[in-house]
Design goal:
The protein has 255 residues and is α/β, with parallel strands linked by helices. The protein has a 7-stranded mixed sheet with strand order 1-3-2-4-5-8-9, with helices on both faces. The chain is globular. The two termini are 31 Å apart. The protein has 11 helices and 9 strands. Strand 8 (200-205), helix 9 (216-222) and strand 9 (226-231) form a beta-alpha-beta unit. Helix 2 packs across helix 3. It folds into 2 domains: 5-117 and 189-254, Rossmann fold; 122-182, no CATH class.
Length: 255
């Protein structure tokens, strides 16, 4: 699968940094920070399968998504790269490191652990499915409808970045919504593999429940050469809630 991507920086002497977004996200999520990171690295922000402008597929597993990234690296002539993944992209990054450790320089995981998570996106899926795409005329209308299902305005704004206006004036979803719903068990699953002993950094938000203290022993068992940094007063969306603090931790590690 040929993934869509945005590239920042073109100095062939620099290390590559590949950034993988989370569920409902796209390459654009890291656009602002990628331009900063491009001062030190050749940065590639990818659209994972079924997201952004990348192709849709009925199959969604972390092994397949990791293979997509390896195919991208091969196409770009990247023997190794730093890999940064947030949430679902973090699990994809973990699977890539477990399957192809020789292709990873340093691994950075944003607020996700290598564990199975309970389903908690049902209300979001319900709201997205309820959207009358053939009748809405603006994102403002869509936001009012989605508000009955998702109370947080910031989350709604993020979700609605996936609305795409068609040539006839109507809207469609960029994400492959039916596949995401059908394959959600695979999205909530843990990456598969015994261990990866390369240099690894987990960054978590103190207000997020994704990397709890209970997850730490299992995380360090699979990634024994990892350390965990915590950003205070921060939730799951580290790079948007605390971009300065997140970037400082990231760049100190990569440098």
């Amino acid at each position: 699968m040929k993934l869509n991507f945005d590239q920042y920086g073109d100095d062939t002497g620099r290390d590559a940094l590949i950034i993988l977004h989370g569920l409902y996200g796209s390459a654009a999520n890291f656009r602002g920070l990628a331009k900063i990171y491009a001062r030190d690295f050749n940065v590639y922000c990818l659209d994972l399968r079924n997201h952004g402008k990348s192709p849709h597929s009925d199959e969604i597993t972390y092994s397949l998504m990791a293979e997509d990234v390896i195919e991208f690296m091969d196409d770009q002539g990247l023997e190794k790269a730093h890999i940064l993944g947030h949430s679902m992209g973090g699990k994809t990054a973990m699977q890539l490191a477990l399957n192809n450790p020789e292709r990873v320089n340093k691994l950075v995981i944003g607020d996700i652990a290598p564990v199975v998570y309970p389903h908690h996106h049902e209300k979001i899926f319900e709201g997205l499915l309820a959207m009358p795409l053939e009748r809405i005329n603006s994102r403002g209308e869509a936001d009012k409808i989605l508000a009955d299902y998702v109370s947080e305005a910031g989350v709604r704004a993020f979700l609605l970045t996936n609305l795409k206006r068609e040539e006839d004036g109507g809207f469609s979803w960029r994400i492959n919504l039916p596949a995401l719903i059908r394959e959600y068990d695979h999205i909530s699953a843990a990456p598969e593999g015994i261990s990866y002993d390369g240099e690894t950094l987990f960054i978590r938000g103190a207000n997020s429940g994704y990397i709890t203290d209970d997850c730490v022993p299992e995380t360090l068992e699979i990634f024994p050469n990892a350390r965990i940094e915590t950003i205070e007063d921060c939730g799951h969306w580290l790079h948007s809630e605390k971009p300065k603090e997140f970037s400082e931790i990231l760049l100190n590690f990569l440098r």
